């Protein structure tokens, strides 16, 4: 028997491992398990769990196939144990050397495994669901083992391995996390109903229940090493520090200030000489990024975001010497905490040292204010030289996004904003624009500061260009920019103005109608790269106004999360203006499977008004593929002008993307309003008089109507002809955009403008010379009846004209009248 055991022990082969010496990113070792199949293809097996044993400087990791790897950092060796099947949790036993508890995923058993031989010495059963949490109490009096699944928790007495206590849960209040406090005095559990329950370990009596009202969707709790403080967080961007001595909340931290939308996991990182009162809290955000937050200075000292993949979970060793990150692709990165802290400290020192070098020394020839101004301008000039677009684009392609801390500076450099303080002050002095005076009634904005900044931005845009005072989608378009850049109002205005001038080209060409040219471009690109998806849209009956315009008008803010939106606009602002349309098509193609399952118009409408899960890397990669592989004859860059920044000076350049037809109607309305105030006529009377006079003068050249009945039928036919002409004009513009790609031809633009200025209610038509004449009637009236009914026809015509003009006013001038 002893020979058999010795043979099994010798059968386990150990291999050397080599750790990186002081790496810049702190990663001393990377683990990945790749196997070669029978057909020669390589397949990677994902790691699912890991645990440290500080007492013996070891690490155990398990993969999906049930393989368990032991890494010995003292001897720099690793080996693989015979698998016991897929497992859901691992834990070393503190009191016993080389013993590992492995929770089985199939039979929900706890197997006590020898890390040297791989033999199972003991098996505990009793769970009805996979075990997720294993914890040991460090209490001398009661040395117990805690194992827990989402539906129950069991306390085991380690002397004879019997059940000591069982905690059962009910639906809706399942266990999110459960553990002993560091001293072993308390048992603390976090439940799905956002409740934290604390029991006294010895008596298992409930001593405290915590229901934080500000914290929703709680996911994780963590203790400091001395057990005096507990951190709680969840999917809401709120972090609560709780005192275990006074049973009161010590501090509430808004994580959104650090661009952390929520937390999936928390853990304190112990450090030397901190007395167990750990100050560094590791937070795994909802965006799969690990943040190291200093709770004393309330600053993020380091951020870990591996290039290859996001982080799924992390584990910190009890002493704080190491921690590991299990990536979403299944790899494991092992970090040395001291190296990570040193690199974080070096980064901060570099920033401070750079600023000190840039600041000149004191001089008796210059006043301090002048020196400060000169140094600031010099620093800004050097930053502009260093942050040219080519260098920034290389950084973006390497890391996938810009650092949150420097994003506003980088965006300013990419857009080359002029910082025209005098021109901006002139717009501010005009006050709140009437169109946005009561915008809080249209949108629910809880923050008074955000509302104030939104009003100020929209008012400045409307004073800069009157068109922006009547575009209904504009508040929703600029709102995410307000949230990101509101600390610098000047940068906010100039950034949005630059985006409207460059990345929103052709958007306002046919306002107030949809941008036909832009939608035609998007439809052509989608037809080129995914014709079946376009066919599905046509079958359901939705157009590019749904799958493209809805996304553009909200700047992607309705379909992407905050972090996804920031990353996307990092790429949009770093590329040519055509990239934003490629991003729209990319979003549809990446969501193809979800879109094809939707069979009704209402379902598809709702899809483009909500945040749907999306792989950021696939989404952006597809956008770049479209940008590079779209044929030139339908590529947006054929119709877009290159990026042009705002001019530096005492006034901003004029916005030239005006829709000419809308301007004519707007100016005509203003002229009528002025006449209304001076002549005391209503707008309806003025419009009726002018249109009646013009039609009567042109009608003298042609034959008049025969009788009231024929006139009425003829008016209806003419009305239908004009409507049909209007439809043909819009169709012609759309066909020209689809087939020829010439979205800005003179003929198409003039016909569309004509259809807007001279709608179907005005019965006029152009002749070949370009003049207007009355439309000919289908039937030639009798000359005898003409003289008898001339007066009656004229009266009926006036009455009909008055109705038509009233309809015209309701259709085209309701929004204009509200401005006056």
From TrEMBL:
Intracellular or extracellular location(s): Cytoplasm, Cytoskeleton, Cilium basal body; Cytoplasm, Cytoskeleton, Microtubule organizing center, Centrosome, Centriolar satellite
Compositionally biased region (Polar residues): 811-820
Composition bias, Basic and acidic residues: 689-724, 771-783, 792-809
A single GO BP: cilium assembly
Alphabetical UniProt keywords: Cell projection, Cilium biogenesis/degradation, Coiled coil, Cytoplasm, Cytoskeleton, Repeat, WD repeat
Region named Disordered: 689-746, 771-820
Primary location: cytoplasm
Gene3D superfamilies from the UniProt entry: Ypt/Rab-GAP domain of gyp1p, domain 3, YVTN repeat-like/Quinoprotein amine dehydrogenase
Residue span(s) of domain Rab-GAP TBC: 401-576
InterPro entries the UniProt entry points to: Rab-GAP-TBC_dom, Rab-GAP_TBC_sf, TBC1_cilium_biogenesis, WD40/YVTN_repeat-like_dom_sf, WD40_repeat_dom_sf, WD40_rpt
Iron-sulfur listed as a keyword: no
Molecular-function annotations in GO: molecular adaptor activity
GO cellular component, as recorded: centriolar satellite; ciliary basal body
Role this protein plays: Molecular adapter which is involved in cilium biogenesis. Part of a functional complex including OFD1 a centriolar protein involved in cilium assembly. Could regulate the cAMP-dependent phosphorylation of OFD1, and its subsequent ubiquitination by PJA2 which ultimately leads to its proteasomal degradation.
Protein name per the record: TBC1 domain family member 31
Underlying gene: LOC111353909
């Amino acid at each position: 028997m002893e020979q058999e055991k010795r043979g099994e022990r010798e059968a386990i082969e150990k291999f050397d491992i080599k750790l990186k010496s002081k790496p810049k990113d702190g990663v001393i070792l990377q683990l990945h398990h790749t196997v070669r199949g029978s057909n020669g293809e390589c397949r990677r097996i994902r790691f699912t769990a890991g645990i440290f044993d500080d007492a013996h400087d070891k690490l155990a990791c398990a993969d999906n196939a049930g393989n368990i790897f032991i890494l010995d950092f003292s001897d720099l060796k690793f080996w693989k144990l015979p698998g016991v099947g897929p497992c859901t949790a691992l834990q070393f036993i503190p009191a016993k050397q080389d013993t590992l508890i492995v929770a089985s995923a199939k039979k929900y058993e706890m197997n006590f495994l020898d890390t040297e031989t791989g033999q199972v010495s003991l098996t505990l059963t009793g769970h009805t669901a996979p075990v997720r949490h294993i914890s040991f109490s460090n209490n001398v009096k009661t040395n117990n083992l805690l194992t827990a699944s989402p539906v129950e928790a069991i306390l085991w007495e380690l002397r004879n391995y019997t059940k000591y206590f069982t905690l059962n849960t009910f639906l809706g209040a399942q266990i999110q996390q459960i553990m002993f406090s560091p001293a072993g005095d308390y048992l603390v559990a976090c439940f799905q109903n956002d409740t934290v329950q604390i029991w006294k370990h010895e008596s298992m009596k409930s001593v405290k229940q915590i229901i934080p009202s500000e914290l929703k969707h709680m996911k994780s709790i963590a203790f400091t090493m001395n057990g005096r403080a507990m951190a709680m967080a969840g999917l809401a961007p709120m972090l609560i520090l709780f005192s275990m001595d006074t049973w009161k909340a010590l501090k509430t931290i808004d994580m959104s200030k650090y661009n952390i939308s929520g937390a999936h996991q928390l853990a304190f990182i112990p450090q030397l000489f901190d007395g167990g009162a750990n100050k560094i809290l590791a937070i795994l955000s909802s965006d799969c990024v690990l943040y190291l937050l200093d709770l004393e200075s309330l600053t993020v000292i380091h951020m870990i975001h591996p290039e290859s993949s996001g982080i799924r979970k992390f584990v910190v060793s009890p002493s704080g010497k190491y921690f590991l990150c299990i990536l979403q692709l299944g790899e494991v990165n092992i970090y040395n905490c001291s190296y990570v802290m040193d690199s974080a400290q070096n980064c901060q020192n570099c920033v401070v040292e750079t600023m000190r070098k840039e600041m000149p020394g004191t001089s008796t020839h210059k006043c301090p204010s002048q020196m400060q101004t000169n140094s600031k301008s010099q620093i800004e000039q050097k930053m502009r030289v260093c942050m040219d677009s080519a260098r920034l684009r290389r950084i973006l392609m390497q890391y996938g996004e810009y650092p949150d801390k420097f994003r506003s500076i980088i965006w300013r450099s990419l857009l080359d904003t002029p910082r025209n303080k005098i021109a901006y002050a002139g717009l501010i002095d005009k006050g709140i624009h009437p169109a946005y005076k009561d915008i809080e009634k249209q949108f629910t904005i809880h923050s008074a500061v955000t509302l104030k900044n939104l009003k100020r931005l929209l008012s400045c845009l409307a004073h800069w260009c009157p068109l922006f005072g009547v575009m209904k989608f504009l508040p929703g378009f600029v709102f995410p920019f307000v949230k990101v850049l509101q600390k610098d109002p000047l940068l906010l205005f100039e950034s949005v103005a630059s985006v409207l001038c460059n990345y929103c080209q052709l958007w306002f060409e046919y306002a107030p109608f949809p941008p036909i040219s832009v939608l035609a471009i998007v439809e052509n690109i989608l037809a080129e790269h995914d014709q079946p998806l376009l066919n599905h849209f046509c079958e359901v009956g939705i157009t590019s106004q749904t799958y493209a315009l809805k996304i553009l008008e909200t700047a992607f803010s309705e379909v992407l999360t905050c972090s996804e939106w920031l990353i996307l606009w990092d790429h949009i602002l770093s590329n040519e203006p055509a990239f934003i349309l490629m991003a729209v098509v990319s979003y549809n193609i990446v969501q193809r499977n979800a879109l094809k399952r939707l069979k009704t118009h209402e379902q598809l409408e709702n899809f483009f008004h909500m945040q749907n899960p999306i792989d950021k890397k696939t989404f952006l990669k597809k956008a770049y593929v479209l940008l590079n592989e779209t044929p030139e004859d339908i590529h947006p860059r054929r119709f877009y002008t290159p990026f042009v920044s705002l001019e530096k000076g005492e006034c901003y350049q004029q916005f030239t993307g005006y829709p000419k037809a809308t301007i004519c109607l707007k100016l005509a309305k203003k002229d009528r309003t002025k006449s209304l105030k001076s002549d005391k006529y209503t707008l309806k009377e003025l419009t009726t008089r002018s249109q009646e006079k013009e039609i009567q003068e042109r009608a003298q050249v042609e034959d008049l109507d025969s009788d009231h009945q024929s006139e009425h039928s003829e008016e209806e036919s003419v009305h239908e002809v004009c409507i049909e002409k209007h439809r043909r004009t819009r169709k012609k513009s759309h066909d020209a955009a689809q087939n020829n790609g010439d979205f800005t031809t003179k003929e198409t633009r003039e016909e569309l403008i004509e259809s807007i200025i001279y709608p179907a209610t005005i019965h006029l038509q152009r002749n070949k010379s370009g003049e207007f004449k009355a439309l000919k009637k289908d039937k030639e009236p009798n000359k005898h009846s003409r003289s008898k009914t001339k007066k009656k026809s004229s009266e009926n015509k006036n009455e009909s004209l008055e109705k038509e003009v009233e309809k015209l006013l309701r259709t085209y001038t309701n929004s204009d009248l509200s401005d006056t």
